[in-house]
């Protein structure tokens, strides 16, 4: 019996097998696998499941997956292209039978690397794994030569259009560009008029969406100039797919990518304003942006600082980064957010993503921004129809890479010419995403009824300028590996290619030899990652030498090492500080809740002091609402309230709330955490909330409810222990980690001090049950009994929980550690303390005799005073750290460097 995926056919050569089993592209579409268009009357292995019109550029519908026909396929199919034939022949001895394993390996690699695309992400939404197909898109040397020359030419034209529009505006005066498409576009920034960018270069990164028509030629569908996405994801795609097919990757002479990224960074450094070496940062909207993974990945790869808007500030028309060491000049900014959010002073006033005063720093020539603000109007589809004339006027050349025929309906002649053709075209908004213009989702005329076409024609006549019509183009289809049924099969999918032009110097660009291929989703109508599409790696072949440049320098210099040692921003530092505090707070809440439920369900429930101590700590840590009576009045009500509040994510102090805060703080510094650490944090929150929700839904009562709650708390405790291990054993001891550690110890010092103070004030320490509970809360029961046997007096407690410098949960250890790490954070030499360190009590002055001196009514005034001073000092130091390192409002307002 043959158990192979394709039966006896697997004995054939892989390329021949692929040719026989891979269905052709749908009729009228170019077949990337075979290099020819499928005739409209071509036979298929089986009819489509339902009629499906051919897709149109960014409004595509995926073709239905054909069923594998029994018997041999039609013998008239053209052979595979040389590239695809070589690809399949290099699969190795296992051939097609190994493809399911490679698909599983690819999915695991994407998951393990934490590659995500947050579709319409929000603070509480799940992260969607990046979707990557197993097969790459092959681009022959001849096709790439056409693309490369055409894209280079187009970026030159677009750059000169920007220079004119924000300069002499001759194009508008001569009528080569309609004023409505420029001054009437919300992306035109009047504040940028008259600006001279560094190197006289406006565009440093430009993306072009290309589609291959049935004639085999490439056509421009759209262009992206504000903040084109894809440069990071295509790197991850290349890394993942080249690992799955290493032999084919080498055999096909695929061009590498590193040289272009290196040239881009060198180009930016050359034309940056003063700074040697210049400090370049990548500006991201933050972790809730759908492409945040790419921002963090790209920043690490390029060796630049990843920053958010509130990491930056403008002083004296210069841009600075707020770091733990003060203000550090920023000379270049790679922006990954749209222009309107860049400066709330001059653009969108409610933006919290930008930097107040940034446009003034740009106008003063003190910072390079890639791309310069003001290019949004270039993204209008209407502009494509004017570029041929603009190219002849600006650079004296004809465009080598054509765009789809496009009509802007703001011109009466164009509108009248295209209205009869609406049924064969796509209708797009001229001002995409504008709040001040009519905007809508693109529609395909062939999918509209006669009545709907008439309605659209009426809208176009009434508001012609808001509508752009683009001709129809059936997208080419590439082979993909589909596993929607059975072990897997090859299926054609419509593909849109995004390529990038990057500047490598003043008025100089090169095209990245690769790109991001986007595939139409199986049940979507547009080839968009936001709507369920997927991606593919792009292999550009060459007949010549493969450039094997690497960004990994064989001989690093001190300067290059310093460039890759990114400073710790104040925002990242603050989030690390609160990550530490919330992790410790969650541990304290879990430990206190477990202890309370254990004691309430135990045999000894007669100690009023113990119940009073538990009630006070539960109130102080918000484990129960203020109106809930204590255990001395109604033990059952107190117990039920505690169980009910465990999963409340809206009440500060509950276990669920603290776990959510841990996850939110970690999300803000996601780039600093390992994938395992991040997964532990996400899993801890989701599992605890799931268990508590199930418990609430089951309406558990009595011992069952307590047992279920204790199991949930035990799971959370184990998860928090794993987080603590990751934080203490797997993170680099830099300033960010020191702040995380300081945050944890500040929280621990305040919690333990208040717990001890309450125990002595209420008198729980003088009863056996209360004494044992206080030792257990400090997680020191085993050590206590091993050291002191059956003694239970104040002296033994003070010795272990207050004075023991080897116990990480004693006040002395926590205080001494805090003093040292605060000094180290300030840059002091080992053993030297700073003024802030001295704000904490000095454990060296504490003595057992003095602290254990009993006063009237069996009180210990020196001990209680120490508890109160430790708690007050913890909060005072927390405020001082916030002022000194996060808000930079005190003496820290100094700049570092030149």
UniProtKB/TrEMBL annotation:
SUPFAM superfamilies the record matches: Glutathione synthetase ATP-binding domain-like
Compositional bias annotation for Pro residues: 45-54, 63-81
Classification via Pfam families: Alpha-E, CP_ATPgrasp_2
Chain positions covered by the region annotation Disordered: 30-84
Sequence ranges assigned to domain Circularly permuted ATP-grasp type in this UniProt record: 136-520
Domain named DUF403: residues: 569-886
PANTHER family reported for this sequence: BLR2978 PROTEIN, BLR5612 PROTEIN
Protein name: Circularly permuted type 2 ATP-grasp protein
Organism this protein belongs to: Variovorax rhizosphaerae
Taxon lineage: Bacteria, Pseudomonadati, Pseudomonadota, Betaproteobacteria, Burkholderiales
């Amino acid at each position: 019996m043959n158990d192979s995926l394709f039966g006896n056919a697997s004995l054939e050569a892989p390329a021949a097998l692929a040719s026989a089993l891979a269905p052709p592209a749908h009729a009228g579409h170019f077949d990337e696998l075979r290099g020819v268009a499928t005739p409209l009357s071509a036979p298929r292995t089986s009819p489509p499941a339902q009629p499906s019109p051919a897709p149109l550029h960014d409004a595509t519908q995926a073709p239905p997956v054909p069923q594998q026909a029994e018997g041999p396929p039609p013998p008239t199919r053209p052979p595979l292209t040389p590239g695809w034939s070589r690809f399949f022949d290099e699969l190795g001895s296992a051939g097609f039978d190994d493809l399911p394993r490679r698909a599983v390996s690819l999915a695991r690699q994407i998951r393990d690397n934490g590659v995500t695309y947050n579709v319409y992400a929000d603070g509480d939404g799940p992260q969607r794994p990046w979707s990557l197909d197993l097969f790459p898109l092959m681009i022959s040397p001849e096709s790439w030569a056409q693309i490369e020359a055409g894209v280079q030419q187009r970026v030159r034209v677009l750059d000169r259009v920007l220079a004119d529009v924000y300069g002499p505006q001759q194009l508008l005066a001569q009528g080569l560009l309609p004023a409505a498409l420029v001054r009437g576009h919300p992306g035109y920034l009047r504040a940028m008029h008259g600006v001279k960018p560094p190197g006289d270069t406006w565009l440093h990164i430009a993306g072009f969406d290309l589609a291959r028509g049935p004639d085999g030629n490439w056509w421009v569908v759209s262009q992206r100039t504000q903040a084109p996405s894809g440069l990071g994801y295509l790197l991850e795609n290349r890394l993942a797919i080249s690992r799955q097919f290493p032999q084919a990757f080498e055999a096909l002479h695929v061009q590498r990518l590193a040289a272009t990224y290196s040239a881009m960074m060198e180009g930016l450094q050359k034309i940056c304003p003063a700074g040697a070496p210049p400090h370049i940062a990548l500006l991201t909207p933050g972790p809730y942006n759908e492409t945040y993974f790419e921002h963090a990945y790209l920043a690490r790869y390029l060796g630049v600082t990843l920053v958010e808007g509130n990491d930056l500030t403008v002083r004296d028309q210069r841009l600075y980064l707020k770091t733990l060491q003060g203000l550090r000049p920023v000379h270049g900014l790679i922006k990954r957010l749209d222009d309107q959010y860049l400066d709330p002073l001059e653009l969108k006033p409610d933006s919290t993503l930008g930097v107040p005063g940034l446009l003034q720093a740009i106008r003063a020539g003190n910072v390079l921004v890639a791309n310069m603000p003001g290019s949004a109007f270039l993204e209008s589809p209407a502009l494509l129809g004017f570029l041929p004339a603009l190219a002849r006027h600006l650079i004296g050349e004809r465009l080598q890479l054509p765009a789809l025929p496009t009509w802007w309906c703001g011109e009466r002649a164009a509108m009248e010419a295209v209205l009869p053709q609406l049924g064969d075209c796509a209708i797009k908004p001229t001002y995409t995403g504008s709040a001040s213009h009519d905007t809508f989702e693109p529609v395909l005329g062939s999918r509209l009824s006669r009545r709907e076409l008439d309605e659209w024609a009426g809208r176009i006549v009434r508001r012609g300028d808001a509508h752009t019509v683009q001709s129809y183009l059936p997208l080419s289809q590439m082979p993909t590996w589909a596993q929607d049924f059975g072990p897997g099969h090859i299926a054609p999918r419509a593909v849109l290619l995004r390529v990038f032009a990057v500047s490598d110097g003043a008025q100089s660009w090169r095209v990245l030899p690769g790109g991001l291929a986007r595939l139409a989703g199986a049940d979507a109508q547009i080839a968009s990652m936001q709507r369920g599409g997927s991606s593919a790696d792009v292999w550009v072949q060459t007949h010549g030498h493969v450039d094997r440049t690497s960004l990994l320098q064989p001989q690093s210099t001190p300067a290059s090492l310093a460039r890759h040692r990114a400073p710790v921003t104040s925002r990242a530092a603050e989030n690390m500080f609160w990550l530490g505090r919330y992790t410790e707070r969650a541990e304290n809440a879990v430990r206190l809740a477990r202890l309370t439920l254990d004691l309430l369900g135990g045999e000894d429930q007669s100690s009023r002091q113990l119940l009073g101590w538990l009630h006070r700590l539960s109130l102080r840590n918000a484990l129960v609402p203020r109106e809930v009576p204590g255990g001395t009045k109604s033990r059952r009500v107190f117990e039920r309230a505690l169980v009910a509040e465990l999963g409340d994510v809206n009440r500060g102090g509950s276990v669920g709330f603290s776990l959510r805060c841990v996850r939110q703080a970690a999300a803000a510094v996601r780039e600093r955490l390992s994938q395992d650490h991040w997964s532990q944090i996400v899993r801890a929150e989701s599992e605890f909330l799931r268990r508590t929700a199930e418990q609430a839904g089951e309406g558990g009562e009595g011992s069952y409810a307590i047992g279920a709650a204790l199991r949930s708390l035990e799971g959370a405790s184990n998860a928090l222990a794993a987080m603590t291990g990751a934080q203490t054993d797997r993170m680099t001891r830099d300033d960010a980690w020191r702040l995380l550690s300081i945050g944890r110890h500040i929280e621990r010092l305040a919690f333990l001090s208040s717990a001890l103070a309450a125990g002595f004030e209420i008198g729980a320490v003088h009863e056996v049950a209360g004494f044992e509970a206080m030792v257990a809360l400090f997680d020191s029961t085993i050590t206590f009994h091993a050291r002191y046997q059956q003694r239970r007096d104040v002296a033994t407690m003070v010795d272990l929980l207050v004075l023991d410098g080897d116990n990480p949960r004693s006040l002395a250890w926590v205080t001494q550690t805090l003093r040292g790490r605060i000094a180290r954070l300030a840059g002091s030499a080992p053993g030297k303390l700073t003024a802030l360190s001295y704000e904490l009590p000095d454990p060296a002055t504490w003595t057992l005799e003095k602290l254990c001196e009993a006063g009237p009514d069996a009180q210990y005034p020196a001990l209680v005073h120490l508890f109160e001073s430790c708690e007050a000092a913890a909060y005072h130091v927390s405020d001082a750290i916030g002022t000194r390192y996060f808000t930079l409002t005190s003496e820290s307002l100094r700049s570092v460097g030149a």
